[in-house]
Amino acid sequence: MDDSAAPVGTAAVPSVPHGKTASRLEWRFLPQEVRALVEDELGSPVVDARSQTAGFTPGFASLLTAENGARSFVKAASRVAQPEIAASYAEEARKLVLIGEQVPSPALEWFSKDESWVVLGFEAVTARPPRRPWRAADLTRALDLAETIAAATEQVPAGLDLKPLYADLPLLLTGWKDAPAAWPHRAEAAALAAGLPDVPGNQRFVHADLRDDNILFADDGRTLACDWNWPALGPVWQDSVDLMISAHGDGVDVDEVLAARPLTRDVDPDHIDSWLAALCGFMLSARRRPSPMNSPHLQTHSTWYAEAAWSWLARRRGWL
Questions:
Q1: Where is the Aminoglycoside phosphotransferase domain (predicted)?
Q2: What is the pLDDT of residue 21?
Q3: pTM over the 0.85 mark
Q4: Would you place residue 44 in the very low, low, confident or very high pLDDT band (cuts 50, 70, 90)?
Q5: Strands 60-66, 108-113: parallel, antiparallel or unpaired by DSSP?
Q6: What is the number of other CB atoms lying within 10 angstroms of the CB of residue 128?
Q7: Phi-psi sector, 227: left (phi>0), alpha (psi -120 to 50), beta
Q8: Helices 269-286 and 298-317, axial angle in degrees (round to 10)
Q9: Span 71-76, average pLDDT
Q10: What pLDDT is attached to residue 4?
Q11: How far apart (Å, rounded) are the C-alpha atoms in residues 63 and 49?
């Protein structure tokens, strides 16, 4: 990225192709022993495999239908070829075993973790993701989901061994050191980000990755969150604010929404600004890394979120 660059706004950043951001391994390329394991769980051979193209990881993720009509959403990754993805899938399975009945998530029906592959089988849910740009009804439903997760995890489930998100991702506190030289109000934003550990209530359970591509609006009326790899400790309103950042980037008046929602309406504005500054700095640092070949839109995603978080923060602080 150009180190002299100043903010340009989300409208000037190429939009990621929502729902088509992942380049994933397909069913026919899985090793025979992995396919045999899955077909044993389903009870008959797979006759249809529909690779899921949302998200930013290259692990296998496909909706599978077997000859006997059984269906499963299967995620898989090689411990050798994709060690980070495999580890995150194994961690997702561990966490869902502990919290799966508490939180609104597609059910984890089975999983296998051997020396070579991690394979997870989820309930197959007929659903759609929220539409982008955000519509008011979809945003309301997504924020309802964030509040449902918060209510279900008021007591952090035992055994999760969660850490504050800023401990898992130190760049939330230090990312502004990588901000372009021409970026305005760097010192003020860096100070806000560095103050994140002092935000009250930083010990609540948060999903920490609640984006539109991790939300399902099921045909049966449920609203579900996917990808439970990264839960952490944070302020109870963090997931809600994360959703509002993307809505702000899409042109929604989120200050009005923030003032109306129960998790955000009474929060000290400086505390929300601290999180916006931390996330912006993190994304400014992340966008310096080139996109991997198997996730070609990751850098654009980081740039867009940095601009969206900055735009909202700057408006709130009177920096525009």
A1: 81-258
A2: 46
A3: yes
A4: very high
A5: unpaired
A6: 12
A7: left
A8: 150
A9: 96
A10: 46
A11: 6
Q: For the residues 65-80, what does the mean pLDDT come to?
A: 96
Closest CA to 30 of 56, 70, 64: 64
Q: Mean pLDDT over all residues of the chain?
A: 91
pLDDT in tens, 285-317: 988 775 555 556 567 888 999 999 999 999 999
The angle at the Cα of 310, spanning 306 to 316, to the nearest 5 degrees, equals 155
Residue 264's contacts (CB-CB under 8 Å, 6 or more residues apart) are: 237, 240, 241, 244, 258, 272
Q: What is the C-alpha to C-alpha distance for residues 145 and 223, in angstroms, rounded to an integer? A: 6
User: What is d(CA 94, CA 248) in angstroms, rounded to the nearest whole number?
Assistant: 34
The confidence band for 25, taking pLDDT boundaries of 50, 70 and 90, is confident
With a cut of 80, say whether residue 238 has pLDDT above it: yes
Task: List CB contacts of 185: < 8 A, sequence separation 6 or more.
Answer: 314, 317, 319
Domains and CATH numbers, the chain: 10-17+129-317 (3.90.1200.10), 27-125 (3.30.200.20)
Cα 10 to Cα 162: distance, rounded to the nearest angstrom: 33
CB 305 within 8 A of CB 15: no
Q: How far apart are CA 233 and CA 163, in angstroms?
A: 6
Is there a contact between 142 and 215 (Cβ–Cβ < 8 Å)? yes
In terms of Cα–Cα distance, which of 164, 189, 139, 141 is closest to 7? 189
